[in-house]
Amino acid sequence: MSSAHRYLDVLDRVPEAHANAKSAKSAKPEAAQNSHAQRLSPVLAALEARCPGRVPAERWQQAVAEGKTFLSRWGDQAHALGWTARDLLGLLTVPEHAKPSFNRLSGYDETGLIWLLDGRPVVALTATTAAIQSPTGNVTIYRKLNKSALGPVGDSVDDLQ
User: Fold this and answer.
1) Which residue of 56, 63, 81, 84 shows the fewest CB atoms closer than 10 Å?
2) What is the rounded average pLDDT for all residues in the chain?
3) 118: region left, alpha or beta (phi > 0 left; psi from -120 to 50 alpha)
4) Is 71 among the domain residues?
5) What is the tens place of the pLDDT at every residue in 92-142?
6) What is the mean pLDDT of residues 28-35?
């Protein structure tokens, strides 16, 4: 099994881990409950252990560092707002016959927030968006649902009439 598949398997097991953590929560005092950062630590540990295939090594190292920073600052709020491991750390699936130049970070619609930070901090977080501030002060909005404003027919409120 490739490292990419192992990484995705860990992402797929996160909802199960959340359910187990919720059931364990009721048995533990509030002070001992795990934070979202701790529940996501197996995913981050899997990412930290090995660079996913078709991802540049420097971007992988940066994502690990930024993942730790994000989770320490925003982890509990992200969990409360419904952000998943895939929303934060997901990657584009490698096609069966990918060209050697294929880069898993090239598909914005399947790339998790952490991979897109590129050294920029998150300054606000909602249930569906994250505000990322550039060094110049400009803010970029990452949309968790990854729907473009001019998507296909049926993707617009106007199409529902």
Assistant:
1) 56
2) 77
3) left
4) yes
5) 999 999 999 999 998 888 899 999 999 999 999 999 999 999 999 999 999
6) 42
CA distance 141 to 67: 18
> In this structure, are residues 88 and 113 in contact, taking their beta carbons and an 8 Å threshold?
yes
**How is residue 98 annotated by DSSP?**
-
Q: Is residue 7 part of a domain?
A: yes
Range of the domain at 96: 3-118
Q: Which residue has the higher pLDDT, 103 or 160?
A: 103
User: 55 Cβ partners below 8 Å, 6+ apart?
Assistant: 91, 103, 104, 105
Nearest to 17 by CA among 92, 79, 90, 89: 79
Residue 35 in domain: yes
Write out the two tokens for 123. 């300054």
Number of domains comprising the chain: 1
Residue 48 lies in a domain: yes
Percent of the chain with pLDDT over 90: 50
